[in-house]
Design goal:
The structure is a homooctamer of 234-residue chains.
Chain A: E1 3-4, E2 7-9, E3 14-16, H1 19-23, E4 29-30, H2 36-50, E5 52-56, H3 60-69, E6 74-76, E7 81-85, E8 95-100, H4 106-118, E9 122-127, H5 135-138, H6 141-145, E10 149-154, H7 160-165, E11 172-176, H8 188-195, E12 202-204, H9 210-227
Parallel strand pairs in A: 4-5, 8-9, 8-10, 10-11, 11-12
Antiparallel strand pairs in A: 1-2, 2-3, 5-7, 6-7
């Protein structure tokens, strides 16, 4: 397997071997439209170099191809993720909240939670606190404020991040989901709602992109932890 | 001026002379793309038949053409409406709330309020209670619950109707506004947000259509009043 | 099963135990993307507290999970709803019309009708009166005017609510459906048509959202009934 | 001025000199984004060859450039058209109806009417018969049925063509207009409404394209007239 | 089976019994989202009253339900239509061309052709003459000009109607198809192309709506035939 | 001026007096669609309570109304912001980079920079490093890595955040701008590009929303600073 | 099989027999929505006349119908193409690069590569060099510059063509792919990104249209080769 | 003025001093949203280094700022370009055709022509040959085939590139324009039409982007010329 400086060339893929040094975390495998064989091959390279694996949007078939070689691989069914931790990443000091508006948003929230845990964060899960019953959210204010970052997952009109951002002083990362029907247009309504949030400082990721929100949150948490004198860092 | 049964034909317009009998309220003039002269001519027919006038989306020029002939006409500047009440419509018993999310939504809210008042309702105005400072809304719950219908006017992500609908037992009519920028796309974000509201039973009108919401609310209020033994009705 | 004041926490869901007091009706279960087990668990809590159940967008599998524990549960196949009435909600005095433009719109109309009946209203069903044969509608004017609220369900160009609103004095709630092809874009054409209705006071709900229209209509009907000295109320 | 077989080359334009032979009517000038001088130059060529001129989307400046050379040119202000008839086109035997939904749609209707008259048709103008007062339309059924083709001009939800098509046996050509606001999106709502019409056989032209509808109607009328033993035709 | 004046009420459908008198052709059944049983029931009423049946968007299951009772019913597989002609409609004198741009557009073209034939027109089929090989079209000019109306079916960029309209003097009705991929967005590209056609007088129907184009063409052809002293008409 | 607990009620606005306690920063005034008088009145309340003012999307007229009463107010012309610092907010320890792709993106970048400085951050400005000349970006890697957060402002295809995110280990907040023409559709192309970024962990704000990105960055920077033992925090 | 001058008429298709003379390459078969039998029939005509076959978007069923008659036909599975070269097209002198951003873009890249090879070009394949790890691209600059044309295939935000265009002096043809999720909207994000590329001179083809890009590249390569004194050309 | 290796840093802009070496042509200035002073400052740097200037989307004010310092600067009014050629770029051997569909497309065509001439190509201008009069195009086939590349500029339905691509063997670059109204949606119809062209090998640039098409064409022409033994090259 030839290794050009900076990446490992598998022909169909160039595994970014330099990524952890540059960006702080090793490469993550996005499984959609990749064959199980391709995912397993990339997984092997990643584990050899970095000792830790995260594969998102994985089907059971992807998992089975990976676990055949790496016995320690785990399949997170609801989150559709495969993880493997030979050499776990450094633990970070802050907690990250993963809040979701409704039960139907849980798969996206779980993708975020699994990603966060693998990247070293402790996760605070808070489910089903949509704005139509705002008292369910208000009671959680202290638990939210105690976190370093808050990820808010919501479909339909995507109103929850605005309400959360108005309650706390921490960064809020919003994840629109494709939950809804009719004029939700596959999550477009929630996406536009979050981009137009009247809550200052809400930032947004792609529809159903729990991974992206978690990665961003982990980056912030690592900043904090580094500052606090702990591990991690590029 | 020929009068075919059911309408008065002005050539460029057929004034619906039968509307009040059928629908409970006389015809309302929508001024956009009509000349001041056309509006004044229609206004004369409406006032002669029904004794009460509402013209929406009116400019000052429209008003001036109307007031020249009808001295009692009034221009509501913020609402862009002209009204004239020779024979006021019957007073209705219930109150209607007009709630708006931000100061910038006031012109649309005023169009709703002016329409409601002309159609016989008492209006409860509640301004600037957007979800980013949810405590401002929670304090108004009793005032809202005391109304027959609640009109909620909001731009940006349009989240306010969901929060209101979760607090009260009254019908909520949502009006998206074109307030916002970038990906609000002229009110599309707020419109989609409201259509996808997780608050049960929220109904929606067109962007910036304060008049439409008010007309629907008046229809409901008249039902109530009729039931309570009062006036109005077809 | 812990009960925080105001809701029952099932981990994956927080059942809003306070909703009937605040909003007048108990919580309704939206089944899409929930597992049969989750729906059954929520159903149990709802029935225990409120004695009456409505689950929408339910598949037969959802129904079977519910009926296993609640023998009285009924599956409404065309409407895709599950209902169970241990303690029926108070009967309301007014009738609500559910009008639909074509035979293909019937499933959405049935979702509205089932919801209305559970929430205590008597339903007047009027099918297949689209504007392309306007005489079919004109003959129903008196039946429509005798109702408290009129729900109009239509796909394609969504023109029926405008025609109905021009005939009667009652509130009209329009439900666009995804019936159509080509440039109907999944109901977008009907939705835009209804939002731009030239019929004053038409309000609109999301595409295929028969439930939402019915809930709003029930809220109005309850207002009336309360006023008339009957039951219900927050 | 060089004349290649089939067209006259003005450098910035190639006037289609063969069009009347091929298509039955001479070339029509679309003025938008053309300078007054360019329009006048093309007008001269067209009048020299065919003796009759129609220029659409013309401003007063375009008219003035044309009339300077062609004294007989006429400016139709509401329709924004310039016409000149040195050698009028053959009169056609059938009448064409131009129906519009509201007063605001008149400019588009006038573009259609002016075009039809120049192309030899007699026009039946019927204004302000929108579906919100359907009785205004029903009274015109016989007048409509007596025409060869019916052009229906409407903005907002664009519902009128469906209602007309359900009443008569003649071809209906629908013209959506940009009249409306908010979610009319510049006429998109009316356009989609008309394309999804439940009225069989409605055909549609571009938003605000009164000319296109009239041209199509004239083509049909000419067919009829030719058949009836009269003039015209290629 | 109750018969209110003007329609036959089947509960789930109101068959428009007056349509042939008003519009010249009997009601056509649109099968999508109707059950085979519903289609068969409506078919029986239509055949009883008018002796001729057209059902579009029919599956084989729809056909089988119909043919069980009406032995003479025929299934047109490519066109997805069911027809039955106990009392054929009057033959019309003119020919109608059905032109299509590519082989993939044939199903839509066949829906148009089957409709035209049932409604009494003779059809001229011309396949695969897209603008990328314009010589294939030019050779057909005389055959096209000999028809009364020309239906042009095209997907992808939808350019063919413009080219045809520039060659002949007859009405051109354009049918965009959903043939294409990527940025054709289900036929939107072809639809917009046709609406913006530089060919004067092109009118357009919904995406894949071969039936609508044929119905409009038949209406025009009947005008002609009526004029020529033949049959048909209301 | 009445003061309900938690906000100051000006009639047309409710100034959120509790915001700094809850969210860490005082309320910011969004000037669009507010009159100069309204902005000045809100500004007075904010300055009285919190001693520091930021008004965004301000015109010179807004500034003049503010400065009449608050002599220390400053107008930032390129950024369209008004600031006033009687009691400056606590200085934060980290630097924030504001990177922009082209010269035309500078106004949005300046809105971000002015906001950041007012909220206590030191700003590192890096202009005109778009991906079409990637060497201009590569040379800035160390300067970027030395910051706590990186704001990337870009129009057109919005590709710069992906490239930046691949180079550094810090959180990247992307701001799409409306710079571009044709199919940029007012910034939609850049917005979609950024939401679909292949760079892990990029989060996005609304089109042209420099303020929102800066507010989010300041929230992160405050976390860090708090952690490092310094000032600020709720 | 009749042969009108310029094409062979199969009834359902007119095979453009003149295309190679006019355009330099024989007709290519687009298989989607064609039956295996239709594809095989067209293939026979093309091979008889030109000795070389390319069928794109082919399923295995299409291949099997072709290979039954033409033993030399080959199925390229990843590219979904069928080729057959009885008389190979002239070899061209230049190389064409096919670069792709990620492993998931490979099927589209392969459609391009197979097309290029059949049309006589030598292909340089470069996979997985997306902008999130820009060092992987920079190392390939010389290999890219040595080609005549560069095809860049990318999904998600479609940023790669801008980066490539900034590195080399050769024409860049961009192919957006439908790879991505959420707000990629089936490749729309990548398409808009590429159309708005800040890299001068990037041209774009339809989403997933590897064939189109390859055909354009081959046309350019043939120009070069012709110029260099070699074969090909019309 | 500091010069970092590879670019000249003006603070608000980094002029890419290395571009000609890498990409073959010097940097071009895009004037929109830049002040006249900024454009003049960048122009000075570009002229000093490369001796040749092209500024697109320039207003007269931009020109005046440039010409004050560079006496030889020329303003191309229709094309909105400023050019200055102290050291003209090498002449290329091939001709490039710039074809446009209608007179209204001329400004975009001129932007392309001015760019081509500055970059060393000879231009063949062919105006007003839209597909509605296809004979105007057919007569130009030989002139088109004699060019190296063909740029086709068209608005409305954007059908011309397909017709041209079917006639010749040369690369066709399509430029959609914003000419049109109603459902042209600012050029979207033409853009989608061109992307879905049935003419093989058509590539497309952004709406109204005459410059981009010309730059791509020049790149191809330079390839040819280099090959033919002439000048240019990186």
């Amino acid at each position: 397997m030839p290794e050009t400086p900076g990446y490992v060339d598998l022909g169909f893929a160039r595994v970014d071997a330099d990524r952890r040094r540059r960006c702080g975390f090793p490469e993550v495998i996005y499984c959609e439209r990749k064959t199980p064989g391709e995912v397993a091959a990339i997984a092997r390279v990643v584990l050899e170099r970095d000792g830790v694996l995260l594969a998102t949007r994985a089907s059971r078939a992807h998992y089975e191809a990976v676990v055949e070689e790496e016995k320690g691989a785990i399949f997170h069914e609801r989150a559709c993720c495969v993880t493997c931790e030979h050499v776990p990443l450094p633990r970070l000091t802050g907690r990250v909240a993963v809040v979701c508006a409704g039960t139907s948003d849980l798969p996206v929230a779980e993708e975020a939670a699994v990603t966060l845990e693998l990247l070293g964060s402790t996760v605070e899960r808070i489910a089903d606190v949509g704005v139509a019953g705002i008292h369910r959210l208000l009671g959680e204010r202290d638990r939210l404020e105690a976190c370093v970052v808050i990820i808010v997952v919501a479909g339909m009109e995507g109103a929850l991040p605005s309400a959360v951002a108005g309650l706390v002083s921490k960064p809020v990362i919003a994840v629109p989901t494709s939950v809804g029907y009719g004029a939700s247009f596959g999550g477009l309504a929630a996406l536009l709602g979050m981009l137009n949030s009247c809550g200052s400082g809400v930032t947004v990721v792609n529809i159903d992109n729990g991974f992206g929100a978690a990665y961003a949150a982990a980056t912030i948490n690592r900043l904090m932890s580094a500052n606090a004198g702990t591990s991690s860092a590029p």
